[in-house]
Fold this protein.
Amino acid sequence: MSQNALSFIPKGAFSCLSNLQQLNVTGNVLKVVSPQAFAGMNSIRTLVLAKNFIDEVLEAAWTIPTLQTLDLSHNLLDTLKKRRFVGLSNLQALNISFNLLTMFTLQSVYGLSNLQQLYATNEKHSYLNGMFKALPKLQYLDVSNNPISWMSIDQFTHNAVLEELRMERGQLLGRDLFDNSQNMSIFRGLASLGKLRLKGNFLHQLDLRTFSNLSKLYYLDMSESRITVLVPQIFKDLHSLKFLYLNDNKLLALNGDVFQGLGSLTVLLIQNNSLSKIEKQTFAPTPELRALYLPGNHINTILPGTFFPTTDHSLSIDISRNPISCTCELQWFRNWLHTSNIRIEHPDRTLCSSASLQVLKNKPLLSFDPGDFCGVDTALISGISLTGAAVFFLAVLAYINRWWLNYKFFLLKLALFGYKEVEEDVAEEDYRYQLNVMFHDNDEGFVNDIVRPALMQRMPHLQHIIYGDDDLNVGMFYVDALYHAIESSYKSVLLISNQSVSDAWFMTKLRMALEHLNETRLDKIILLFLEDIEDDNLPYLVRLFLSRNRPYLLWTDDGDGQELFWATLEKNMRSNRVLNNIIPV
């Protein structure tokens, strides 16, 4: 009865059709649905009321217990009121997509204890308020294409048989999927979940434990989700995962442990990201990998010894639309392609970049024959000759300076065997705070724009950090709060600038930090210079600290210098050295 002009169905209108199994009333102008309109339909299994103007389902018990599928999609429902599905105890599929719904509650689905499929896509908003506790037999749930939120992360703990969950384009953030205060994932309770679709969200900050409960998951789609970094071993519990979609994100690098635990993975899509290289052991944890898609990245070479799983099976790999440099440094990979059980997808689009050998520019990678271009390595021969000459020169130089060298070797022997450096036996997790960042108010922009994002990306394990005065204990006097922050922190970093060394309060912080260093005898203080400071403006305490070879860092605008800066900071965060003033520096 679709595509007519029905505006009302009276009570018992179909009661004479006791054998009817399917009724389709799509595309009419119905505004209200009354369960009594379908009374007497003793065999009805499918009822389709889609594409009407329905804005209310009247409160009355349904008397058609045989109904298995109810379609209310493409209507004007803005709320599901209480007890509107009473009597549909055998309903298996409910479609309420493309309405104006904003909230789902436990009472909204009262009476649907046997529901197996729920479609609730393209709503105005999906505020989930524990409704799934009433649906213990739910196997398929789709709440995609609308903003999703919830008050409590305890949403699916009663849905042990749910097999597929779709929350695509739901404006979800990484922190929405894991509650640190409760140490609980939104996926807790989904013991049977096999397919999880999270495409098109904002998952750039995922906790390591987000997927820890999904041991049966075999399909995971996180494409188009603005992911820049994946923490190591984030998939370590997904032992059944076979399909992983990470395409169309903003990944800059893949840690060698990121795929740890994916021993069953067969298909991996990472195309259209910003990867510039592949670490040698990135794919070592995926021995069953059959298809690897890497097109549309910034990869220019494959490092010698990079592992690809091809021992017992063939591997299809797509590295098209990457700026591959076809030079002799890539000859190992080109020879390996010729001898291994591997198939290059889209070879006509896998081209040598402009950084390749002149005759190979814009030519297919497979046209590169190392035997034609990479013969005897004259550079190696020249290098060996120059090395021999350099060794002779160094031998002569060593003989001339033999007494000075003997003295330095003595000091080296003392450093290696004469004493043992002692480290604090208390780990960083035993402190209340892992890091305390102290700075002048004028340097707050540097902290917010550079320090915070870098620490989140490079050292995600640091979860308890004090950033300046705003994070101090509000229940203490200011000086007491400063001392409490220094004493309770594994490391304290002080940002030194021209403004800070002229500020009396900042110098008080520095003095307190150095006094704490002298009291504890632990190398817990790091100075971070944001700019060059004239010698005349450098405070005595700072010069005294530097004269004792204490750790300090200097910020620079150079990209390589910044990489060294963060690597040095990360190294200094590994341990607190016990100071030994007996041995002179």
